[in-house]
Amino acid sequence: MVLKLENVFAGYEGGGDVLKGVTFQVEPGEVTCIVGPNGAGKSTALRVISGLLKPRLGSITFRDRSIVGLTPRQIMQLGIVQVLQNHSLFPDMTVRENVRLGAYLLQDRPLVERRLQQVEEMFPLVNERRNERAGSLSGGQQRMVEFARALMLDPPMILLDEPSMGLDPKTLKQVLSMITAMKELGKTVLLVEQNVRSGFSLSSLGVVMESGCVRLQGKPQELLNNPQMSHLYLGGTLSKA
Amino acid sequence: MPILESHNVSKAFGGIQALEMCSLSVEQGTITGLIGPNGSGKTTLFNIMTGYERVDTGMVQFQGQAITNLAPHKVFQLGIGRTFQLTRIFPRLTVLENMHVAVQRQGGVRSLLSPWSSSHEQRQALDLLDFVGISHLKDEPAGNLSYGQKKLLEFAFILITGPKVILLDEPAGGINPHLIGYLAERIRTLNRQGETFLIVEHNMEFVMSLCDNVTVLHRGTSIASGVPAEVQKNPAVLEAYLGD
């Protein structure tokens, strides 16, 4: 196990706890997918791991070390990078400037340039549009730049909040195969996904959250066949609606 | 009869030609889907139709009248409501207060100072929150809502203003599968009551099962238009968008 949350409680200013005793763990080199209804606390779970939100109670350990109370920068230095759900680029900076910012912790300039080159090769769009203002890109294109930026630190663990959102079907396929490629490189991926089918198809562990708690966890295929799962989360399908 | 149309609209941002002679027609009483690859110009076209961007050349018409380059609030007053890819709500106000602002149609603090003008309006706001499935959150600061819940609030926010046409920018993005089905059913219900919709969405199951017509944009121009089954089989669409 590389990451472990135990009995974590957390919430935002002016509201109650969003996480109400969350416990789960992530195995190294695997893809783990959190699913659950809107407002279940999925994004909040990622935010307490990356340090953007401090838990009120509970423990979080990464590689057997407590990371509760560390700043986002320190957590990033330990090797956890998060890609946020909402657009987080600096619109008036160029695409390349935004991507380079992903390596702001690194002092080794030649290494940064090498990484930049690798990332631009991996994402043709990022390369083609490198001198454009990031704000001139469409929503889906900006997502690709955010992925590219997250890879600049070459982190051992990456947190992805709804990677499929806003992507056209063709780009979605590219992103899904990119996640598989990350796993093949030995990286640990923890993702939140509404699109259960695509999220689970990549994952070796599924975590189902509801109302701030983990209700179910296990192998994705078993979860999909679990009647409790459809009751908690899937409800009626669109074709039946 | 088309209620909302763009004719040969072109728009460039610096060196990027976002739209190139782009035409789109939304028939009254239909649900029209607008799909296309990332960066094909869908949001730019939405922005032009709702006054958030100006055209370089071309024309936009609403109920047969030219509305090209009209200010956003004027477009809104004519009865064109829209949601955004990034939700636009007041994060520090509660969910119900956000609805209150929307119903006043003048926005911001001024409307908060005036009480609900009738209990009927407050009732309607609560009913609409119920309609989109978030009435249990009415007293939460809107900023504490999850992304999916914010999108539902924005939808209710638009509905209370009673627009004639509703433009939805990725309504299913970030919404859980159960709610997507629910949302589709809500859109159908409103459509049966006469509401017209124009919807940008990447969830193909959602688009294909919901829309009467679908227009496909590619590189800023419309490459196909028709009923979902036809468009889905169009080789140019498969090549540009679906990638199969």
CATH class annotation of the largest domain in chain B: Alpha Beta
Mean pLDDT of chain B: 89
Q: Would you identify the CATH architecture of the largest domain in chain A?
A: 3-Layer(aba) Sandwich
* Poorly predicted parts of chain B: none
Number of helices of chain B: 10
CATH architecture name of the largest domain in chain B: 3-Layer(aba) Sandwich
Strand fraction band of chain A?
Answer: 15-25%
Strand order of the largest sheet of chain B: 6-7-8-3-9-10
H and E order of chain A: EEEHEEHEHHHHEHEHEEHH
Q: What does this protein look like?
A:
The complex is a heterodimer of chains A (241) and B (244). By secondary structure, chain A is an alpha/beta fold. Chain A has two domains: 1-79 and 156-234, 3-Layer(aba) Sandwich (Rossmann fold); 84-154, no CATH class. Chain A has ten helices and ten strands. In chain A, the strands form two sheets. In chain A, strands 6-7-8-3-9-10 form a six-stranded mixed beta sheet, sandwiched between helices. A four-stranded antiparallel beta sheet of chain A has the order 2-1-4-5, covered by helices on one side. In chain A, a hairpin with a 5-residue loop joins strand 1 and strand 2 (17-26). By secondary structure, chain B is an alpha/beta fold. Chain B folds into two domains: 1-79 and 163-244, P-loop containing nucleotide triphosphate hydrolases (Rossmann fold), CATH 3.40.50; 91-161, no CATH class. Chain B contains ten helices and ten strands. Chain B has helices at 42-49, 72-78, 95-104, 108-113, 119-131, 147-159, 177-192, 204-210, 228-233, 235-242; strands at 2-13, 16-27, 31-35, 57-62, 65-66, 80-82, 165-169, 196-200, 213-218, 221-226. In chain B, strands 6-7-8-3-9-10 form a six-stranded mixed beta sheet, with helices on both faces. In chain B, strand 4 and strand 5 form a beta hairpin. In chain B, helix 3 (95-104) crosses helix 5, helix 3 runs parallel beside helix 6 (147-159) and helix 5 crosses helix 6. The longest helix of chain B is centred in the last third of the chain and has 16 residues, at 177-192. Chain B is globular and about 50 Å long. At the A-B interface, helix 6 and helix 7 of A face helix 6, helix 7 and helix 8 of B.
